[in-house]
Amino acid sequence: MAFIYLKACNFTFIYINKIQEMGFANLIMIAFFAFRNANRATQKEKNPILWALLTVVSFFVAALIGMFVVVFGFCGDIINYNKFATITDIKARDAYMQGVSEQLVQDFNANPLHPFTILFFGIGGYLFIRYMLDRIPDKKKPEVHWMDKVGESEQQ
Fold first, then answer.
1. Domain span including residue 67
2. CA 20 to 30 Å from 80, out of 53, 54, 62, 135?
3. What is the pLDDT of residue 126?
4. 3-class state of residue 143 by DSSP
């Protein structure tokens, strides 16, 4: 199972290269999400840099989870788990997984729904951090009794 994880991480690097080919739109989007959560953290009087980093990390972790869902859920016809389990030679496993990763890249190029699913998982990571920030109470402003407000308005 750990070997499958390592090969999936190899596919992750291939996918990251695919993101680089798409341009920096995803990086700009992630920076915008981090900026929004940092502003929200300053309103709550929390460390904005910490919350911006948490946003970026959660985006990538959620996107990685989305990648695993897509690969193991939607691309099950490409990866034959029974054949992979029967291969005992390590070089043969490497060659098999290299072929599988190339097929996955072709499948991702053919079906644009897969990258969008991974992207939406990443957006879910941002929304999770935003939800956590929204649950933190705002700093309470000092309460002013209504009688004190009456006196202030008469002085002006």
1. 2-136
2. 62
3. 96
4. coil
- The answer to the question of residue 143 being in a domain is no
Query: Is residue 21 assigned to a domain?
Result: yes
Asked, for residue 141, whether it belongs to a domain, the answer is no
Tokens of 79: 């990866």
Whether the CB-CB separation of 116 and 63 falls below 8 Å is answered with no
How crowded is the C-beta side of 38, counted as CA atoms within 13 Å?
12
Q: Has residue 131 got a pLDDT over 90? A: yes
Taking the C-alpha atoms of residue 130 and residue 85, their distance in angstroms, rounded to an integer, is 41
* Pairwise CA distance, residues 126 & 53, whole Å: 11
Determine the Cα–Cα distance for residues 123 and 30; give it in Å rounded to an integer.
9
The 8-class DSSP code of residue 141 comes to P
> Is residue 19 scored above 60 in pLDDT?
no
The least confident of 30-44, 70-84, 97-111, 142-156 is: 142-156
Domain presence at residue 105: yes
Question: What does the alpha-carbon distance between residue 111 and residue 124 come to, in Å, rounded to a whole number?
Answer: 21
pLDDT over 70 at 69, yes or no: yes
Alpha helices by DSSP H, the chain: 2-22, 25-43, 48-69, 81-86, 90-110, 113-135, 146-155
